[in-house]
């Protein structure tokens, strides 16, 4: 599952993890154009909720056993906070009525809507657990872990590594396709006339820094998960993301 220049196949088909799965394979395959050259054309599918799903790896492997899986990981504490802010932007009552710290530290007897938001904030950050589930159905050589922080700051280098992982024969030079947009504060596509075309308003939202109490809570919460992720990536021969190295060093000194 990788890249094909078609907006239809870009993201969020959500086939393997929900009700769409019961629509069948024919429904799913209609999203993908027929390759003009099966040896060089690559198609992709990107659905954000696949990574932590308990059922997706097995379902995906049954249909696409030769697929290559790319997972973009950021600091799980930042991911949790970003999800909370995403839900606030979508006017979720639990995110509007409770602070981030109240949500992530909620007790089992907290209101159901708070506990549901808590799970969606915290559980996807159990990276090692989710990766191991994928490795039950795919070979390590089919999995690439991308440092989300590096993707944000140096997308050209990341896309070079992605192309190498996918075995792209006609290497694309992303230095000619991307430029940093000062207004958005991230890299955007270069379009005709040398102007930038960025993602929509929902991407790159600006919100307050995470409070120190919540950051301390999450550092402790993810300590063992991050330690296990480090061991796992070492076994796989994949580089540790910069944010993970920083977390491990911080925990070593705290």
Helix content: 40-55%
Q: What is the strand arrangement across the widest sheet?
A: 3-4-5
What is the end-to-end distance?
A: 41 Å
| General form | globular
Taken as a percent bin, the fraction of beta residues is 5-15%
Number of strands: 5
> What's the tally of helices?
12
Question: What ranges have pLDDT less than 50 throughout 5 or more consecutive residues?
Answer: 1-10
Mean pLDDT: 90
Cα-atom radius of gyration: 19 Å
Spell out the helices and strands N to C.
HHEHHHHHEHHEEEHHH
Quickly list its features.
254 residues, 3-stranded antiparallel β-sheet, 12 helices, 5 strands, mainly alpha, 8% strand, two-stranded parallel sheet, disordered N terminus
Topology of helices and strands:
Blueprint: H1 25-29, H2 56-63, E1 69-73, H3 76-89, H4 93-97, H5 100-104, H6 112-122, H7 127-135, E2 143-147, H8 148-153, H9 155-166, E3 178-181, E4 186-190, E5 196-197, H10 212-221, H11 223-236, H12 242-253
Parallel strand pairs: 1-2
Antiparallel strand pairs: 3-4, 4-5
What does this structure look like?
The protein has 254 residues and is mainly alpha-helical. It has twelve helices and five strands. A three-stranded antiparallel β-sheet has the order 3-4-5, with no helix packed on it. A two-stranded parallel sheet has the order 1-2. The longest helix is centred in the N-terminal third of the chain and has 14 residues, at 76-89. It is globular. It starts with 24 loop residues before the first helix and ends with a helix. Residues 1-10 have low confidence and may be disordered.
């Amino acid at each position: 599952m990788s890249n094909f220049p078609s907006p239809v196949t870009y993201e969020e088909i959500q086939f393997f993890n929900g009700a769409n799965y019961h629509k069948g394979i024919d429904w799913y395959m209609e999203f993908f154009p027929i390759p003009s050259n099966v040896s060089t054309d690559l198609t992709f599918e990107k659905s954000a909720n696949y990574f932590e799903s308990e059922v997706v790896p097995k379902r995906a492997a049954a249909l696409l056993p030769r697929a290559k899986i790319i997972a973009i990981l950021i600091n799980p504490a930042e991911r949790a906070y970003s999800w909370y802010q995403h839900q606030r932007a979508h006017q979720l009552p639990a995110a509007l009525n409770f602070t981030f710290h109240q949500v992530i530290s909620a007790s089992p007897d907290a209101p159901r809507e708070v506990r549901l938001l808590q799970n969606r904030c915290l559980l996807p950050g159990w990276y090692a657990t989710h990766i191991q589930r994928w490795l039950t159905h795919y070979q390590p050589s089919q999995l690439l872990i991308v440092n989300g922080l590096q993707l944000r700051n140096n997308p050209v280098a990341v896309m070079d590594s992605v192309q190498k992982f996918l075995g792209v024969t006609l290497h694309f030079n992303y230095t000619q396709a991307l430029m940093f947009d000062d207004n958005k504060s991230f890299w955007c596509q270069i379009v005709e006339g040398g102007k930038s075309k960025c993602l929509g308003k929902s991407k790159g939202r600006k919100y307050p820094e995470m409070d120190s109490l919540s950051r301390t809570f999450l550092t402790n919460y993810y300590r063992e998960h991050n330690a296990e992720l480090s061991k796992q990536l070492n076994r796989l021969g994949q580089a540790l993301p910069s944010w993970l190295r920083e977390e491990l060093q911080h925990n070593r000194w705290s």
